[in-house]
Design goal:
Mean pLDDT: 77
Helix content: 10-25%
Shape: elongated
Number of strands: 14
Number of helices: 4
CATH architecture of the largest domain: 2-Layer Sandwich
Structural class: alpha+beta
Strand content: 35-45%
Low-confidence stretches: 1-30, 140-145
Strand order of the largest sheet: 13-12-11-10-14
Distance between the termini: 52 Å
Number of domains: 2
Length: about 210
């Protein structure tokens, strides 16, 4: 398999490579469910995941496959003063799949429109290691209690105008951005002195 192949046109699929003996680069007897990473067309992750799931059911291979997952993280976005939680893809262009690697399952995955290839080396899919699985799936114990990050477009050094609160209409420079709390610290001039003021990020606008 060619590691440089990262996308597939909807109307075609990549030719499936074989080794010198004419066989698939899959070792005989491999049947244990393991996690693998697939390169897929960016912005088509969900439709490709759904297509894989349908094909697995249609071929009656549910026992050979586990979950097909798009790793995401929760992000808090605020519009009009209202907060909403959305999901953001952690690794655009990649999908995780749990499967027992065999000729049959390998062909099904590679023959699905939008799938480029398995990540691996020397033409053979490489299963993920335990720490990689936990990282991509967010299974670490510390992450279970971790709050959703806040999507903040501002960065330190931006000049902004305060549009709500005690210091409405004041202009200042952003000093600190805290995505965990959704707070920003703005330096404004009060009585000729630069004074730090902590605000919710939606309380300011770009000048």
């Amino acid at each position: 398999m060619d590691e440089q192949s990262t996308s597939v046109d909807d109307s075609t699929t990549d030719a499936i490579d074989v080794n010198e003996s004419g066989q698939l680069p899959v070792q005989a007897g491999e049947s244990e469910h393991q996690w693998y990473v697939l390169k897929v067309q960016t912005n088509r992750e969900k439709s490709i995941r759904d297509s894989l799931t349908r094909r697995i059911k249609r071929e009656g291979l549910e026992k050979q496959f586990g979950e097909v997952i798009i790793p995401t993280e929760k992000v808090i976005d605020t519009k009009g003063g209202k907060k909403r939680v959305t999901e953001r893809k952690l690794y655009p262009g990649y999908v995780m799949i749990e499967m027992a690697l065999s000729d049959e399952t390998w062909y099904l995955v590679r023959d699905t429109s939008g799938v480029g290839d398995f990540t691996g080396a020397a033409g053979k899919p490489i299963p993920m290691q335990e720490h990689e699985i936990k990282q991509m799936l967010g299974l670490e114990e510390t992450k279970e209690a971790e709050p959703a990050k806040v999507k903040i477009e501002f960065v330190s050094g931006d000049v902004v105008k305060i549009k709500e609160g005690t210091f409405e209409s004041f202009e200042g420079t952003i000093d600190v951005v805290d995505e965990a709390s959704g707070k920003i610290t703005v330096l404004i001039e009060i009585f000729g002195r630069s004074t730090p003021v902590e605000l919710d990020y939606w309380q300011v606008e770009t000048v």
